[in-house]
Amino acid sequence: MKLTRVKSEAVGVVSRQRPARSSREAFLWIAPAALVILFIFGYSVVTVLIQSFRYDGDWVGFENFSIVITDPIFLTALKHNGQLLLAVPVLITLAFIIAIALFETRRGMRFYRSAVFLPYVLPIPVVAVVFGQIYQLNGALNIFLKSVGLDFLAKDWLGDPAIALGTMSSVIIWKEVGFGVILMLAHIISLPNETYEAARIDGAGFWRTHFSITRPAILNTIVFYGVIEAITMVSWVFNYVYVMSNGLGGPGNATMVSELYIYRSAFQNKAPELAAAAAVFLFIATLVLMIAFFRIQRRSIAGTFNK
Amino acid sequence: MLIGLFNERGFANMKSRKAFAIGAVAMALLLGACSSSGDNAAESTPSESAAAFPTEDLTLNISWWGEQEAPGAQKWLEESIALYTKEHPNVTIEHVLQTTDGLIPSFEAAAAAQSGPDIQYFWGGIYSQQPGWDGHIAPISDYLSEEELSHYINAKVESGFQGKVWTAPWYVNPSFPLLVRTDILADNGLAVPTNWDELMKVCDVLSAKKITTIAGGVKDGWFGGWIYSILGGQSVQSQADVINAVVGTTKFTDPEHAGWWTKLEESKNRKCWNDDINSLELYQAQQKFVDGKAAMTITAGPDAPNFVKKAGGDEKVTIMAMPAWSDGPLAGKMGTTSQTLGITKWSKYPQVAADFIKFTHTTERLNAWYAATGSMPADDRFDISQVESASTKALFESALDGAPYLENFIPAQLDADAVFKNVQLVLKGTVKAADAAADMQAVMERLRKSDRKLVDNFTAWAK
Disulfide check for B276: which of A137, A171, B221, B394 has CB 3.0–4.6 Å away? Predict the structure, then answer.
């Protein structure tokens, strides 16, 4: 940074013009793609925004937002999205451990890698239907638990409002962890062997090696995976909830999430303006989350380089 | 590559990005403003008159439901289409069977696009009223004569609105019969219960023997609405009482509207239901009855004769209304509703759609419906004397003089957000009856704020 500043001060006016020209050139290069993105995403975002301020064609100001934000079902849905975020550290930890286990596995790595990744490529409705059956009160899981004498662990996994959201999280974790494993494993494999050899010569053990070398080296990937999964928990769990709760978010509102609230408002309750207002809230929440994660990422990367 | 997008460099040159973003948003705003759609369809124009039958080649699309509760309906529909198109070679009719959960959302999506089916299936009452209020369907009474419609069972009670009729009843849904396995009761020294207290005693005896009294599944919610109708209907005088609570004249916490929650809670406490009722869908649970694992179940009226057959016929099964827990005028009576077909506002050939619907009400088609499904067509010209099964005949006759089906007279959102939800919770034991009633009232009050036309629409409907 210092070098650059000194150089530009020395070059004077000419150097100040160069970034401007290259910036224009960059915009020209990205313009076609930007226009497509603008049309696809920008248009729909703006349409939703406009709709959120209208009712039956009339401008109603913040009335729709006021209705949505005071709706206990929407607040419950937001709370559940927040609770699902707790699954992100679990996912990261699990993915990291499994990635290391696979990295250290000499035999059959390809098979294990495929096995771990398989859930991620399965269609969500299929997964949700299968787990919906497994988690029935008289389903496969409870039959198994009872057969091995663990009757006290047999629960009404999806029928009991106290545990239904946790049950759903377990399905999401099972499905999503494979993505993290593959991302992290790919990064770990690309790390230089010399670093590990040097660590071993210095006497670092298994845990020390991976905690102090692997973890910081793939921090970028870990944070990226964290961002993706956080966005998933906030705005990408609709399929799981819809299929496993038959579109209700039940029992009661135990598995209601904001996406389902939006869908039901728009397509079942015939209130597209309320769906739009809720979508704006969700958009803002996702945006805040992304900004927060990016800041964390910048800090952690800067911290890694400073070390 | 992806990771690269998220690294530090992506945040460089923030000022240029801001300028770009502002420009982009402005452009998108312009686009959005220019193409802002006319939010709602035009209001219904009751004065429309039927045009001459078109002679050019045309295609009608039907989006329907019903095979789920009236197996054989698809065969009958395809047969009807074949016969009709034989009479009208210029007409092609295609049909799509919708899922239970997908029926309403798929229609709403079509309505938003103002494109899709010409003939749409609707459940009765509010489910056929709402699309009319929203301007998505044309009144069937604009295309069918009053004389013709006068034969369609429940047409005016459920689909009538200020002198018009929105949709045409297709088949009757006696709502909802309790099917009782007399063989299981007899094996356990029990008689068919004739009132609520007797039913509770049956629950006591059977649950002590680890036998399920009534099989049900509320995971998909629908059964909650059925229970509301068959228990809640017993303490009101008519559907007008329910509409009064909807518009706010009375409350859902008043005794005539809240009493049924107490009865539901009592049935849970007396272990009347299967223990896995919360983790099963309705149709999964009903199978327990067929398999002889439950003494009773509640089914859709059109499917009741099939259940009787599957469970061993009239010798082993009896069909009855839910035993009365109150002395209200509707207590102990079978509810009745008709499933209907409507013509969408965007259909290019509404008169052809109406003509096809009328064709399905010819004597030959009415008899064919009964033959194919074993259920009752929604037309009083259907000759009930051809029904041989005593239980089925009794079911049909009870539906002709049935009680209004309450679930069809409340907003669909109240049904889902309050009834479905609280029935699940009361049956799980996590919510008490009084709290369920209070929540239903709270949801209703909130709905009157969020659906700003609700009170006007329901008030107009009640007139």
Answer: A137
